[in-house]
């Protein structure tokens, strides 16, 4: 193992590193694109967005050549270096658990602005970020910053470096993204002589240091002094990241003094104004400040954002980035008072007493900033594990489910809900798992042209999913959902069988949500045109009974034995029960569709909600002579709720959609 040190990092050596990218990732992208199949790259990246574990069966649909290339890349890049220390990595995650909000604030106020002072590296960030497109919108930049914040969270969460953990998967994805940027930039007259290779080794290690030693320095500015063991562990973790993300060994050090020397050497060499008059670094930093301002509810305090940036990066670099100075003419009295007090404290040599304290307080608002963020372009929600949100004192859930736009969004978030609830051993994950499989079958039916009205079919499915997401979001908020869903959510807190919970949730969705969605989609249209598609959709559900019964048999063994001998009779009962519910749902859809006035529609909705809730209560709380044996069965079911959700996500016995 190489032990890089300041002695090797000469000016000439650092310049040479601007000529080197990431050979392994670059070769992978070049191999994918050797036949100029851009669609193949898009297909791979779509899978990266939708899947969290690799190797993944999703890659089986790729052409053999492409599948082999992708799987080889993931196999080569998942191993931790021999020198990685699990204990020190764990200590580093504890640092983030304790100081995470402040680290996220420093990302905006110190790490990223310092990177933006390096005009050659900022050039490619600016071009790929499409900053301030569409009449000054910050959406694209917000996406970039939030993706960076998500990367940091994934890296610094406990157990994320386990085999195929979030940290490893995130790093593998980022390496490929960097390689794609390098490839396309150089296909569009990128000036390597002036800028170096896009996202080169110097840029990579500079960014790595901005997440490592720069954060340690920023915490100290806030008055937070990490212990020597904590600093050592934190820098060790980022050295592991550097190895995995493709930083050359001769740049990758965990020695704190050497890291600070290297960061300063890079800034001394690269920080400056672009000779071509480009303002990339200034605009990137201004957008960082605008992003913070957009999340501050108290107007006068918005002037604090540039003060924070100037405080954390220092006047030299703040002037370079044209960050607003103190004592601007239009400052409010509040800001004037803060600046006056800051100068008095600065005069006695303890400047961080005020600004550091304010930074600590302001960092708590970072949680609200990131938790409400939704990346519409990728149908992605910012995700914080509950272990962090609990520690950081926020009552926000781990994520919000945004409105879906297409059926793929519904599938993606159903999987996310199922796995999130699984991690909490919450029985609500059972229905989410089954619902995901059902929606996948509808999506396959749409792909095969099974439906007469495919546009309306997808609208129904998406609207159907959004009704469920709305109910789930209310549950996460601690608010009451509609009556049928509330019955189901309350039932999850009682001792009931797997079947009971799934059917109580399915009742809310089919007898209440489905009629509403169908009537809304066909408003102003002939609803009878949907009858055949409604039936075909239900046939896809009926095909799942073999899988469902096998699943339940795995969590309650006597039922599995019963299925062996009475499979046809059991399926007939299940189909009869569900057909009765769906027939009623179709009639309710027609009734809502025929409503002439809003008052009539509201009356029908009120009746529908009450009837559906009553049916849900019968399922979750049957008469005592039925309830007692069901409680016995529930207590005899095999495995934890997490195990049961895993079972429900199986697709082994599902027939092919045809």
Automatic annotation (TrEMBL):
Transmembrane segments: none annotated. It comes from the Bacteria. Residues 126-324 form the ER-bound oxygenase mpaB/mpaB'/Rubber oxygenase catalytic domain. Signal peptide: none annotated. Pfam families: DUF5995, MPAB_Lcp_cat. PANTHER family: ER-BOUND OXYGENASE MPAB_MPAB'_RUBBER OXYGENASE CATALYTIC DOMAIN-CONTAINING PROTEIN, SECRETED PROTEIN-RELATED. This is DUF5995 family protein.
């Amino acid at each position: 193992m190489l032990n890089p040190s300041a002695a090797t990092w000469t000016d000439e050596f650092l310049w040479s590193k601007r000529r080197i990218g990431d050979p392994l990732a670059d070769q992978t992208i070049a191999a994918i694109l050797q036949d100029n199949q851009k669609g193949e790259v898009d297909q791979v990246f779509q899978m990266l967005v939708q899947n969290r574990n690799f190797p993944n069966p999703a890659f089986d649909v790729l052409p053999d050549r492409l599948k082999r290339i992708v799987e080889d890349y993931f196999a080569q890049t998942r191993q931790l270096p021999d020198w990685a220390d699990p204990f020190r990595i764990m200590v580093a995650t504890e640092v983030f658990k304790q100081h995470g909000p402040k680290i996220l604030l420093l990302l905006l106020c110190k790490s990223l602005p310092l990177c933006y002072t390096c005009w050659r590296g900022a050039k490619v960030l600016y071009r790929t970020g499409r900053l301030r497109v569409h009449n000054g919108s910050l959406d694209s930049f917000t996406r970039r910053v939030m993706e960076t914040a998500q990367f940091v969270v994934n890296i610094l969460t406990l157990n994320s470096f386990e085999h195929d953990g979030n940290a490893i998967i995130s790093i593998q994805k980022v390496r490929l993204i960097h390689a794609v940027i390098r490839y396309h930039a150089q296909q569009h007259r990128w000036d390597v002589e002036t800028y170096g290779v896009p996202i080169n080794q110097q840029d990579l290690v500079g960014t790595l240091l901005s997440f490592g030693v720069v954060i340690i320095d920023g915490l100290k500015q806030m008055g937070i002094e990490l212990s020597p063991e904590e600093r050592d562990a934190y820098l060790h973790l980022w050295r592991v990241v550097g190895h995995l993300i493709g930083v050359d060994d001769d740049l990758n050090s965990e020695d704190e003094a050497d890291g600070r020397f290297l960061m300063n050497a890079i800034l001394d060499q690269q920080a400056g104004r672009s000779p071509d008059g480009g303002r990339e670094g200034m605009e990137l930093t201004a957008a960082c400040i605008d992003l913070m301002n957009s999340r501050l509810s108290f107007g006068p305090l918005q002037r604090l954002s540039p003060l924070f940036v100037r405080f954390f990066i220092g006047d030299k670099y703040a002037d370079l980035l044209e960050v607003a100075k103190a004592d601007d003419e239009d400052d409010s009295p509040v800001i004037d008072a803060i600046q006056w007090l800051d100068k008095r404290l600065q005069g006695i040599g303890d400047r961080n007493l005020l600004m550091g304290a304010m930074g600590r307080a302001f960092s708590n608002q970072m949680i609200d900033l990131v938790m409400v963020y939704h990346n519409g372009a990728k149908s992605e929600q910012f995700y914080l594990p509950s272990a962090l949100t609990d520690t950081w004192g926020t009552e926000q859930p781990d994520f919000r489910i945004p409105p879906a736009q297409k059926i793929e969004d519904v599938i993606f978030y159903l999987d996310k809900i199922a796995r999130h609830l699984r991690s909490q051993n919450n029985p609500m994950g059972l229905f989410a798992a089954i619902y995901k499989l059902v929606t996948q079958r509808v999506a396959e039916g749409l792909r095969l042209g099974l439906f007469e009205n495919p546009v309306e079919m997808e609208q129904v499915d998406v609207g159907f999913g959004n009704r469920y997401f709305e109910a789930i979001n209310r549950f996460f908020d601690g608010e009451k959902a509609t009556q049928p869903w509330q019955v189901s959510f309350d039932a999850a807190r009682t001792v009931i069988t797997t079947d009971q919970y799934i059917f109580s949730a399915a009742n809310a969705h089919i007898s209440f949500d489905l009629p509403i969605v169908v009537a809304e989609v066909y408003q102003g249209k002939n609803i009878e045109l949907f009858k055949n598609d409604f039936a075909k959709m239900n046939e896809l559900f009926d095909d799942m009974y073999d899988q469902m019964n096998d699943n339940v048999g795995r969590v309650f063994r006597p039922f599995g034995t019963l299925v062996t001998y009475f499979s046809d009779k059991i399926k007939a009962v299940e189909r009869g029960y569900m057909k009765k519910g769906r027939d009623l749902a179709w009639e309710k859809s027609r009734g809502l569709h025929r409503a002439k006035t809003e008052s009539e529609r509201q009356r029908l909705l009120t009746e529908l909600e009450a009837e559906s809730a009553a049916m849900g209560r019968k399922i979750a709380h049957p008469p005592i002579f039925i309830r007692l044996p069901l409680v016995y069965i529930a207590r005899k079911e095999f495995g934890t709720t997490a195990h049961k959700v895993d079972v429900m996500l199986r697709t082994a016995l599902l027939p092919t959609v045809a």
